[in-house]
């Protein structure tokens, strides 16, 4: 049986070993997790485009994984940039936001991780805490009865439309969200499930297989 195709927007990298040019990359731990769960990870090129064009490009995918990465520009949620922001890229932001809108509007199964979850919140009209008082960098902690691995200095602020909190850290930071039941399958986590292993990848692949019919 064919593996469900899981689209993973690439991340820009200034360089990569053995390549002579700026690179577009995906974390091997993420693509391996998708593959081991039974999916076919396909890394897609970020480009500024209208939602209709992004929708056409995602037509090949049965599911989407929005990965971690640098910070979103604060203008997307009506604020001025904090000095702590890093690796902000207009093309990356524009594309990721469009992917989030298109996947959710089309009921395409979507898993978002760290930055990806922040993208979804902003795409739904929410905002971010640009620099947490105590960042969750290199932090292993308990969330909802499980041990998770976090690396982020930003957090979700005001929740976007139809988003619900499903887990918080001990300090109150939102660590997991979902959409209300009338939407398709969506899970968003602020932690990195690829670090510790997680059933989320299998759940994404199963939902993608059902979506593909």
Automatic annotation (TrEMBL):
<dbReference type="InterPro" id="IPR044668">
    <property type="entry name" value="PuuD-like"/>
</dbReference>
<dbReference type="Pfam" id="PF07722">
    <property type="entry name" value="Peptidase_C26"/>
</dbReference>
<protein>
    <submittedName>
        <fullName>Gamma-glutamyl-gamma-aminobutyrate hydrolase family protein</fullName>
    </submittedName>
</protein>
<keyword id="KW-0378">Hydrolase</keyword>
<dbReference type="InterPro" id="IPR011697">
    <property type="entry name" value="Peptidase_C26"/>
</dbReference>
<dbReference type="GO" id="GO:0016787">
    <property type="term" value="F:hydrolase activity"/>
</dbReference>
<dbReference type="InterPro" id="IPR029062">
    <property type="entry name" value="Class_I_gatase-like"/>
</dbReference>
């Amino acid at each position: 049986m064919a593996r469900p195709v899981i689209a993973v927007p690439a991340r820009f990298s200034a360089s990569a070993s053995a390549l002579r040019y700026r690179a577009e990359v995906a974390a091997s731990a993420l693509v391996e997790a998708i593959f081991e769960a039974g999916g076919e990870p396909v890394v897609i090129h970020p480009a500024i485009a209208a939602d209709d064009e992004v929708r056409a490009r995602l037509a090949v995918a049965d599911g989407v994984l929005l990965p971690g990465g640098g910070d979103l520009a604060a203008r997307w949620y009506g604020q001025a940039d904090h000095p702590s922001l890093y690796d902000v890229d207009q093309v990356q932001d524009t594309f990721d936001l469009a992917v989030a809108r298109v996947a959710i509007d089309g009921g395409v199964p979507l898993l978002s991780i760290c930055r990806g979850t922040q993208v979804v919140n902003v795409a739904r009209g929410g905002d971010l805490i640009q620099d947490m008082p105590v960042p969750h960098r290199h932090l292993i902690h308990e969330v909802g009865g499980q041990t998770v691995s976090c690396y982020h200095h930003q957090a979700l602020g005001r929740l976007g439309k139809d988003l619900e909190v499903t887990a918080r850290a001990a300090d109150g930071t939102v660590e997991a969200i979902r959409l209300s039941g009338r939407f398709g399958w969506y899970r968003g986590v602020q932690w990195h499930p690829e670090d510790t292993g997680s059933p989320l990848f299998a759940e994404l692949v199963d939902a993608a297989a059902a979506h593909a019919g």
